[in-house]
Amino acid sequence: MGEISTHQPVLLICAMVSRYPEALRWGIDQLIKSYGPVALESPVYDFTETTYYNATMGDDLKKQFVAFETLVQPDAIVDAKLATNQMEQDYIAQHSDPEERPLNLDPGYISTAKLVLATTKDRDHRLYMSKGIYAEVTLFFRQKQWCGSRWTYPDYQREDFQEYFSRCRTWLKERYRSSHG
User: What is the Cα–Cα distance from 160 to 7, expressed in whole angstroms?
Assistant: First the structure.
């Protein structure tokens, strides 16, 4: 029988998509209120790999990631997904953008082995966590590089995204080393 142990804390991240720079900034500000200081902020990327969101979010979408200094247990992404869904609704209530969904917030985490995203959508490759939230391993780290699967979103396979995820992974490893003396 295997020995039960707790998981090492992981690096909470959030992907943000919008056509409005001020919406991305608003998202970061709200996330900081909930999760504390940002450890690493990505550049703002052009989000061109899909038109899936254009009907509800408009054209010329941008994507940005933030990772937070406070490490969390992996199951914290359940409450983070519920909270970010509420933040999206709060943004709509406080702004008068014409789009149905002017801001998309998708939390997840990075461990030394993988990048996991939280979602409300069930699919064959996603595991149910709790409270209507599922988790998927979007990328895994093997032989010094990020690898995708047949389910990995095309943008997560981008080299510039993966450079940011590698910076996050390195930051996390350094954090582990510094906390163990």
Answer: 29
Residue range 93-129, pLDDT digits in tens:
999 999 999 999 999 999 999 999 999 999 989 999 9
Asked if 11 and 109 touch (Cβ cutoff 8 Å), the reply is yes
Cα–Cα dist 166/52, whole Å: 27
Helices (H), 12-158: 21-35, 54-57, 76-94
Q: Between vectors from CA 163 to CA 160 and to CA 164, what angle results, nearest 5°?
A: 95
Q: What's the CA gap between 101 and 157, in Å, rounded?
A: 25
Residues 6+ apart with CB under 8 A from 29: none
Rounded alpha-carbon distances, angstroms, from residue 23 to 33, 70, 96, 104, 110: 15, 23, 11, 9, 24
**Band of the pLDDT at 5, cuts 50, 70, 90?**
confident
Burial class, 157, CB count within 10 angstroms (exposed 0-12 / middle 13-18 / buried 19+): middle
Task: Give the C-alpha separation, 55 to 52, whole Å.
Answer: 7
